[in-house]
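Before a colleague's protein record goes any further, I have to sign it off. Would you go through it and say whether the fold makes sense for this chain? Take the sequence as given and treat only the C-alpha cells as open to question. The record follows directly below this note.
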Amino acid sequence: MTIIGYAAALEQFHPTELLEYSQLAEQHGFGAVMAADHFQPWVPQQGHNAFVWSWMSSLGSTTKKLTFGPGVTCPSFRYHPAVVAQAAATLGAMFPGRFWLGLGSGEALNERVVGGVWPEPHVRLKMMQEAISIIKKLFSGKVVRHDDGKYFTMERVRMWTLPEQPVPIYVATAGPVTAKWTGENCDGIITPGASIEKLKGLLDAFEKGARAAGKDPDKMPKLLQLHMSWAPTYEEALQNALVEWPNGGMAFPKQDIRSPEDFAEMAKLVRPENYKNRMLISPDLDEHREYIQQFIDLGFDEIHVHNVGRNQAEFIKIFGEQVIAKLK
C-alpha cells in the first residue's frame, strides 16, 4: 500500500505550528512526513527557516507511527558529511525504523550562505557522492578515516551511537544519470512531481542501477513529492499558489539563485498558465485524488503532498477523509 505523506514546509510555517499540522496529519491518515531543510525561504512571503534537525526530533517525540526524514539535506556545504551522519544516526537510534536520510546535491539559496565557490552541477554531484561514501563509512560503526578524497577529509574516528536498524539513505534526483547511480549505491530515490513519461524514465534508470548492483528494485523505496494547491474555490487556490508558492510556476533550474529577494523579483513574471503540468491547482478533490492515483499506479511507495496555501488544517482533514481514504 502506498503511503501518503505530509510535506512539512519549514520555509513556510513556524516550527511549532508545523508540528501541530504534522500531528493532525497523522490523525487523518497521513503515514509519513518529508521535512524541508532550508536556510532561507524561497520568497520572503513564506517567511521561515527553522532548523530541520531540531524540528525532526520534536516530530518523532510527539507522533507515534509516522516515518520521516529531511527532503532533502545537502551533505556538502553547510554541513560536513560526518555531522550529517551523526545527526542521522542519533535520530535513527531514538526512533527505530521511523527515520530515513534524504540527501541531495544542494541549492545556492541554502548552501551558499557559508560563502565560497558555488560549483557547477556535475561537481556538486561528485561532492554529494563522496559525502555519501563518508556517511556510509560512519554508519558501519567501524573505525574509519577519509584521507583519499577530492572534496572532504576526515580524521580517524568511529560513530559511537548507532541505531539497531541501519538508517536508509535516499537520494533526490530529477535526472537519469543520478537516478542510476542512486539505484547502485543507495537505498531509495526521491524525486519531485513531473510528467509520467519523465518519471517513468527516472524509475527505469533507478531500477537499472539497482539490478546492476545485485539489488531488487521492487524492495527499494521510491518517494515522490507533489506540490499542489487546494482550496474551496479555484480563485482561492490560484491566489494561494501565486502568493505563497510562485516558485512552483518557475519552469527553469533554481539551484543557482541565491536569495529570496531574487526569487521575489522573478515571481513577478509568474502567471497562472505557468503552473500547467507543474502543479495541480483545483478545488475538486476527485481531481486531486485522480492526480495522485496515477503516481501510485506508476509504482511510487510514498507520495508526499504539499498544499501550498495557509489553509493547512482544513486541507489535512478533508484530504484524509475524501482523498487518502479513496486511493487504491
